[in-house]
Amino acid sequence: MAVDRKFIGKVYGPITYEIGKEKLKEYAKAIKNPDPHYMDDGFTKKSKYGGVIAPPTFAVVYAGMLAEPLFYDKELDLNLFMLVHGEQEFEFFDVVKPGDVITSKGTIVNIENKEKLDVITLVGESTNQKGTLVCKAIFTFVIRK
Amino acid sequence: MATAKLYFEDVKGDETLPSFQLTVTRTHIVKYIGAGGDFFPIHHDEEFAKSVGLPSVFANGLMHGGMLTRVLTDWAGDGRVGRYKIRFASMVWPGDTLTFAGHVVKKYQQDGANLVDCELSVVNQKGESAITGEATVTLPTRK
Domain holding A113: CATH number? Predict the structure, then answer.
């Protein structure tokens, strides 16, 4: 069954996530990026950021949490076994550091009903504790029929 | 290591970015899942994956999608990626050897910022595309 376009505009969140230093290091290791900016306390003390920063795609952790309420939304009733991640886009506006409290809110901006698949676009906006927008994340999910 | 200090003046406009290869294991996949937080069983539970007709688990797209950013950060340094867009073209399986690559397509100034557009790719050992992507980095000038 096609995903109803009436859900365009539906909002998920806000979800709050506090950035932890060891979590950033774990993530950087998992994406095989051994950059000292992400994991070397000694190096980063002297860097322009004064400490460890998040790898850009760490946004998938704090903003990606918005996908969960979408996937398990009973109203949308998505067939998760037929769902694939089609595209992912991020725009970054500021660096994210340990201790930052990131609040993310997601909106379904489009639902396309095609012959063999539905496409859902969710836009997440994440701001830090100062109210600064740090990342805009655009998730595109494809559900085969 | 991404301690690169790249300036806008250094960019020719058509260069190839540093590439690297990785053979994917189940350990890479579960390590990424633990760090990234996507516990949908199709990526870590072999029995579950087989029960829905797949040959095995397969990697979360943002695992290799995250790894691909290293092509940018090793070259341009950190805190400089402004936009990053990837399309997932095919699934990545344990045992696949991936090549992560990129090249510069455009160098320009806009609203006082020095921008460089890059095209990115992840290709498997058969030459099949796993990811195509594009990114914009913002660079400082020497002055």
Answer: 3.10.129.10
Chain B residues with CB-CB distance to A84 below 8 A: 88
Q: What is the ipTM of this complex?
A: 0.93
A55 vs B84: CB contact, 8 Å cut-off?
Answer: no
Using a pLDDT cut of 90, give the percent of chain B over it. 92
Collect all residues of chain B within an 8 Å Cβ-Cβ radius of residue A53: 78-79
Whether residue A79 lies inside any domain: the answer is yes
Residues of chain A that touch chain B, judged by Cβ-Cβ distance less than 8 Å: 23, 26-27, 29-37, 43, 49, 53, 55-57, 60-61, 64-65, 80-81, 84-92, 95, 138
pLDDT for residue B3: 60
Q: What is the pTM of this model?
A: 0.94
Instruction: Give domain status of residue A36, yes or no.
Output: no
Q: Which of B131, B138, B135 is nearest to B103 (CA)?
A: B135
| Nearest residue in B to A89, CA atom | B85
3-state helix/strand/coil string of B42-95: HHCCHHHHHHCCCCCCCCCHHHHHHHCHHHHHHHHCCCCEEEEEEEECCCCCCC
Residues in A touching B34 (Cβ below 8 Å) = 26, 30
Q: At A70, which amino acid appears? A: L
Nearest CA in chain B to A53: B79
**Domains observed in chain B:** 8-138 (3.10.129.10)
As for how many domains chain A has, the answer is 1
Say yes or no to pLDDT of B1 above 70.
no
- The residue segments making up the domain with residue A108 are 5-19+56-144
Closest CA to B56 of B89, B87, B25, B98: B25
In a domain, A46, yes or no: no
Question: pLDDT higher for A46 or A120?
Answer: A120
- Does pLDDT of B4 surpass 70? no
